[in-house]
Design a protein that fits this description.
alpha+beta; seven-stranded mixed sheet; globular
């Protein structure tokens, strides 16, 4: 490789930047290959390149920050840009930033921007970048954001081809590059260098040899700090394990292994060379493993008093910890664990017809565990009734590996729990890993109410490990067979390639086992699977219309929810435009309407369209909706068009159902819309990001349950919409586990957005933890609806309630007010599973005390029209 990667550009070619002239250069990959690999925007070799940067909308840098040209951590030439800002304190600017107009504004030929960042500090720091043109506001431009680990090197590679197109930026008019950080936790001193534009096919330029020596020296101090941390934790762990010989011996053995790893790292810091870049990864791995050791040690210490009570006489291992977690928690297999419930017994409660789950977590501390599994016995009631073991499904939780921080941020990059591997009963567990087993109880609709007791047996291929007690309470009432809330949710498997994956995914589309092809062999299985989660096989965007075979199947099962007759777009004002729209959209929908009518399922139908249309299209949206209502007056017309008044303050009057994003849901405006005969649903998609609840892979599992349960009960949207649950970018279905090869990336660079399902062996259905919590939230909402119905029935019975009835009414009315400690707003809510269970179980107790086991607020009607009719006549129903 060339030691001097800079080659001069053709004579006389310079480009004017703001207030300075900055020369662009070509970077060559190798002296034997003179083909250029990029155009340099900045290499920070002159003070003029520093002076071009300034504050937003200012001529100078200003503020409590500095930019300087420094001789260390340079990756292109001999200097780098150093960005300094003090540690943030209350009252200081929260977003120290600097920006410029780049010296080259026409980025049309380029598909990537790269630059190198070194964070030499001992704390993680945040760095972000916006790139925009002269017309679009800076913060609506292409965005990069990353948390930089301590003492780290990061090469940033931005996808310009896809990113600038997605943001609708003019690639020939790049006007601003805006760098920023956020509340630096300690003094910030980031070094940035090697800012280069690359054309398609051009390789990344190499790092100079001189960089590695400085970076290795930086890692040397990290190793010294790590050695001190090992000593400090050794003393603390030894004290905690005093008197527990098995734990103390295991920790001593583990700490000796850490000493050996530290010695190896110290040697490598002295060697220098390109391997120095791997040091930050390996040091981080030791730090993570040290934290895991401390966490596993605490688990072992907590479990030892329990072990004697649950261990079987023939147990072959004494290093395996077994704990419990709720279904609302995500347990990272190779990172710090939240506190597990360490106890001898687990208790669960559910209604008839309901499914409720918990997790058994197995952690082998000293050696790998082969074919770990959890078995369940029959559960028996005091009166001889049996809840069969066949009603309890135990499956290993599967894990997907994220490779980068997504746009909404993440606390961890690596393995995350998501798919539930129902095709497996056992799983190999590596030493130190935490393997969760999903235990789902399904109470039959005819199951006798009462308490049932049985056992959970934890085993491996070497034999039994322990036996724990399990108690299930079955309430006396039943949840409905179809969703208690109208849903409009798309299941239509497709992929979403990026620029980097477009070619290979195009080839995969010709392969029969590509998941978006493989699932089709099992369509009816998918139809039934979705119904198990209260979902109807449906698509918001279908032009061909619903699959009436699936619709009829679900109708016969009594599980049909809502389905879309077909998508509609805006209708232009001209006679020819109206004629085209009528001949296309209206005639297509008329055929689908007549078929739904002939099958007797019309009250389940809706018509969706004008997806997220902006204000300038409002007249065309109204025209389309008016034509639809004139033709189909008995079908709900719905949209997510951005009218935040829900038709009250705009020309759109013909829409029946408005659907804002959850943070845009306004209860007062919704009440006004309902008074005018309209419904107001709500939805999520790639937004909102925190603090409002969403359902990304990295977000807490409880958020989906809160959204569909207590939040829905508090705000009473008339329905829930979601654009897609089957964006799959994996090459193959999941066929092994627990660490799977399923691609968690779904839409663009998001993880799980638009993808709540996975394809299992041969394309068969697999649920995710997120999908389970979605259904559990709807079942919680069903509890609310049943109690509300019982209150209304007693209030309107005619006769004066008796004293016991009056006391029950007082309690029930109070219970229908969702506690602010659980949900205060869509952005303020508890993530404590115990708080949700306390509220849910209070509703259940009151329903049981009412003594009406077959209360049916829905009257067997689960279509859109049935819900609308009921909400218009029920006190408070859908109008609170």
């Amino acid at each position: 490789m060339s030691r001097n990667p800079l080659l001069p550009l053709a004579a006389g070619l310079t480009i004017a930047a703001v207030a300075v002239l900055a020369s662009t250069r070509l970077v060559a990959a190798d002296s034997t290959d003179p083909a250029p690999t990029g155009v340099v925007l900045f290499d920070f070799e002159t003070d003029a390149e520093i002076g071009v940067w300034h504050d937003e909308r200012q001529a100078t840098l200003g503020g409590n920050k500095t930019l300087a040209r420094v001789p260390h951590f340079a990756t292109l030439g001999s200097s780098a840009l150093e960005f300094r800002a003090p540690a943030w304190r209350q009252g200081m600017a929260e977003w120290p930033a600097f920006e410029c107009t780049p010296p080259l504004v026409d980025w049309t030929p380029f598909d990537r921007l790269i630059f190198d960042v070194t964070n030499p500090s001992s704390s993680a720091q945040h760095l972000g970048l916006f790139i925009s043109d002269s017309q679009k506001p800076t913060r609506q431009g292409l965005a990069y954001s990353q948390k930089l680990p301590p003492r780290s090197y990061t090469r940033v590679v931005l996808d310009l081809a896809g990113g600038l197109k997605e943001k609708q930026l003019n690639r020939a008019d790049i006007h601003v590059m805006h760098f920023f950080t956020e509340r630096p936790p300690t003094e910030l001193a980031l070094c940035i260098d090697g800012m280069v534009l690359l054309k398609p096919g051009q390789p990344l330029p190499p790092l100079p040899a001189g960089y590695f020596a400085g970076f290795a020296a930086l890692q040397s101090s990290a190793v010294a700090e790590l050695r001190a941390a090992v000593r400090e934790r050794s003393e603390r762990l030894a004290q905690a394990a005093a008197g527990i010989s098995a734990v103390a011996d295991w920790m001593a053995e583990s700490l000796r292994a850490f000493e050996a790893r530290l010695a190896e790292l110290e040697l490598r810091t002295q060697q220098g060379g390109a391997q120095a870049l791997e040091l930050q990864r390996d040091i981080a791995a030791v730090q993570a493993d040290l934290g895991r050791l401390e966490g596993r040690a605490a688990l072992r210490i907590d479990f030892e008093p329990v072990r004697a009570a649950v261990r079987t006489p023939d147990a072959t291992r004494n290093d395996v910890v077994v704990g419990f977690a709720t279904s609302m928690e995500k347990l990272l297999p190779r990172a710090d664990l939240p506190p597990l419930q360490i106890k001898t017994r687990i208790e669960l409660a559910l209604a008839r017809g309901e499914k409720e789950s918990f997790q058994v977590v197995v952690v082998p501390c000293r050696a790998d565990l082969k074919q770990a599994e959890v078995r369940v016995t029959d559960l028996r009631g005091e009166d001889g009734a049996v809840l069969s073991a066949g009603q309890v499904k135990v499956s290993p939780v599967g894990y997907v590996e994220t490779k980068a921080v997504p746009p909404y941020g993440a606390s961890h990059v690596g393995w995350w729990p998501d798919p539930i591997l129902e095709f497996l009963t056992a799983a190999d567990v590596a030493r130190g890993d935490a393997q969760a087993f999903w235990v789902r109880v399904d109470a039959p609709r005819d199951q006798a109410a009462g308490r049932y007791q049985g056992q959970l047996q934890v085993r491996s291929q070497d034999g039994p490990l322990c036996v724990l007690e399990m108690t299930v309470r079955v309430y006396g009432f039943a949840v409905p067979a179809a969703s208690p809330l109208p849903l409009a949710v798309t299941f239509a498997p497709h992929d979403h390639p990026t620029t980097a994956t477009a070619a290979e995914q195009a080839a995969w589309r010709n392969e029969p086992d590509y998941p978006i092809n493989a699932w089709k062999k099992h369509k009816l299985q998918w139809v039934d699977f979705l119904a198990d989660y209260y979902l109807t096989y449906d698509s918001l965007y279908t032009r061909a219309g619903p699959d009436f075979g699936a619709v009829e199947r679900l109708h016969q099962q009594g599980r049909l929810g809502c389905f879309n007759l077909g998508y509609y777009g805006p209708c232009g004002a001209g006679p020819e435009e109206i004629q085209r729209w009528t001949q296309g959209t209206l005639e297509r929908l008329r055929r689908q309407y007549e078929q739904a009518k002939s099958l007797g399922v019309l009250e389940h139908a809706y018509i969706y369209g004008c997806d997220e249309n902006p204000k300038e299209t409002f007249p065309d949206v109204q025209r389309a909706a008016a034509l639809l209502k004139a033709e189909f007056p008995d079908v709900v017309v719905m949209t997510t068009t951005y009218d935040h008044s829900y038709g009250r303050d705009t020309e759109i009057k013909a829409v029946d159902a408005w659907c804002p994003l959850t943070p845009r849901f306004d209860p007062d405006k919704a009440a006004g819309a309902r008074a005018a005969g309209r419904d107001v649903w709500w939805y999520i998609c790639c937004g909102p990001h925190h603090p409002p609840a969403n359902m990304f892979v990295e977000y807490p599992a409880i958020e989906g349950r809160l959204l569909m349960g207590p939040m829905t009960a508090k705000y009473r949207p008339d329905g829930f919409l979601y654009y897609q649950i089957s964006i799959w970018n994996s090459r193959r279905p999941i066929a092994f586990g627990p660490l799977t090869d399923w691609e968690p990336r779904s839409w663009t660079s998001y993880h799980g957005d638009g993808s709540w399902t996975c394809a299992g062996p041969d394309g068969t259905p697999l649920p995710t933890i997120r999908l389970e919590n979605f259904r559990d939230g709807l079942e919680d909402y069903a509890y609310f609806c049943i109690l509300e119905y019982l209150v209304q029935r007693l209030e309107t019975q005619g006769a004066e309630p008796s004293a016991p009835q009056q006391a029950w009414l007082t309690e029930a009315r109070a219970a229908l007010q969702v506690p602010e400690t659980l949900v205060n707003s869509v952005s303020e809510y508890s993530r404590d599973p115990a708080a949700l269970y306390a509220y849910r179980n209070r509703l259940a107790e009151l329903i049981d005390r009412a003594g009406v086991p077959d209360a049916d607020p829905w009257g067997g009607r689960f279509g859109v029209r049935g819900f609308r009719d009921r909400s218009r006549r029920s006190p408070g129903g859908g109008s609170q």
